[in-house]
């Protein structure tokens, strides 16, 4: 990121630059609480921490017992035959995932009219009828008809009173922002300065690759006109591959992410929340004079989601980029599989309660020693057998 220096720096003799030392750094608009909060978020998103955690988890895998080496040659020969069968199984499994992707595309077209109507209600383009708004809660089902009528009349009067007190809002204000804030995985990415921008988010759509094209899906974030950027849609495409690696076919465990591509955000001048301005005071070692230098540096923001690490042509990534990309894809997959199909339940918090119940049940099972030893990702409530993705270590 280029530095934006003041006039004093421009006039300074280059030979004197080595004699300048930083004496303090002041970030504009930050208090102690926000600093602590940002530090926590940074730790959770730190690629080195993620890589260390992954390495620790990898270390939990079993190691060979040495039994194979002790087998007679004729038995090893038969084991090799089993391995060849396993490779064929991996290729069949790859075809299975390709067909699953085709099936997802087919049903995505059936879901879309419902998602479109959801968007129309959220954005006040459509006002649902009384019949469409009827929803019985568990408590209502237990009440008598007369009691229900009495409660409905009371609720109606209260609503009318509220309408008189304030102007009737359009649609469902801050629908998607509330969804993001209710989900830990997304709220960890969310900064305070992101919220005014996300208030303008109208819809999130999932688009699958066309038939015959390489496997991929695109997340589209649709925004109403706003003061922050001129884009109406921000998109991110995840490109996948569903075929065993010839050099290591036994590692195949479903489609793997090959790369993800974001988009350019056309920020309005002075509204880019992915950048921040800091002021640094520098003291000249020789003359003792102090000057203030203004710099523009990257800022933590949800909108960094649209600028993921680039995957080199050879497919090889350093550990930091690999960890960032793996976390990035987890988020994209979660938005596709959970958030978009069940948005209203994350808005109300009901989906979060269901997730918590799943984790509680898992915790009870973990009390069993045998269950604890056999715990794997299939016991994870978020585990999806048709979408186990990996970041490639090479092409």
UniProtKB/TrEMBL annotation:
One annotated GO biological process: nucleosome assembly
Nucleus is among the record's keywords: yes
Superkingdom per UniProt: Eukaryota
Cell compartment(s), UniProt: Nucleus
Pfam families per the UniProt record, alphabetical: NAP
Gene Ontology cellular component list: nucleus
Composition bias, Acidic residues: 11-31, 132-143, 351-382
Biased composition (Basic and acidic residues): 1-10, 147-168
UniProt keyword Hydrolase, yes or no: no
InterPro entries in alphabetical order: NAP-like_sf, NAP_family
Region annotated Disordered, chain positions: 1-40, 132-168, 351-395
Keywords recorded for this protein, A-Z: Nucleus
Family: Belongs to the nucleosome assembly protein (NAP) family.
Protein name: Nucleosome assembly protein 1-like 1
Source organism of this protein record: Xiphophorus maculatus (Southern platyfish)
